[in-house]
Amino acid sequence: MFDYLGPWRQLAGNRKKRARLTFAEGDFAAVYAMSDVHGCYTELVEAHRRIVEDAARIPGPKLIVMLGDYVDRGPDSSAVLEFLSKNPPPGFQRLVLCGNHDAELAKLYRKPAGLLEWLGFAGTETLHSYGIDIEHLLQSAGNETITRVIRNMIPERHIQFLESLPIMLRMGRVVFVHAGVRPGIDLKKQKDSDLMWIRQPFLDEGPQLPVLVIHGHTPGRAPTFGPQRIGIDTAVSATGRLTVLTIKGTRVGLL
């Protein structure tokens, strides 16, 4: 599991601050959240099918919230980004938040000098999903050639999509974010790096704010229920299990 968690630090400095969004508590009849798809396109499509099936008898608007980390580890990162950049199912809105792996892919595309460090962090499977044999290129090509291949093979619109993603959604007393929050710090003062990368002390202490945080980032074989937090990263690329958390009124459930 330690190998799966990977490095516990941010690889590079932040870009400009990402958007934080707010919806009213009663804006949606049902909310469905999932996290850390990590290139598992088949499971993502199946999760959407089950969400549509579950919501069929619920009148009113519905929301799907994606909590980040759409690339790396699994086999189909490119297909995942293509799917998420298109329209959601009829009757749904879909809000896609940014995870640390997503931000790092966008940084690599813009500044490929960090390629080797990024590959040590993750990334090989993502490049393969775009038809890039990075192992061969590292042995036979120079940096300029590798950069050109990456920019030719990865669609610019996928990178623009990742760069456009907000980083937090607050809906009444519930906060959706990729990794967690810095305990005791006002939500408006949270750094993007914390929201995408934090583990401790958040996992043990919770937000220490009057909110419930729904997050991913830290994988487990089952959802985790900590102090004022619910972690829903069930390591789909390793376990085959993609967890969907549901909120219907005041009831919280799992698919």
From TrEMBL:
It comes from Rhizobium aethiopicum. Gene3D superfamilies: 3.60.21.10. Residues 31-227 form the Calcineurin-like phosphoesterase domain. One of its GO terms (molecular function) is phosphatase activity. PANTHER family: METALLOPHOSPHOESTERASE, ZINC-DEPENDENT ENDOPOLYPHOSPHATASE. One of its GO terms (cellular component) is cytoplasm. Pfam families: Metallophos (PF00149). This is Serine/threonine protein phosphatase 1. SUPFAM superfamilies: Metallo-dependent phosphatases (SSF56300). GO terms for biological process: RNA decapping.
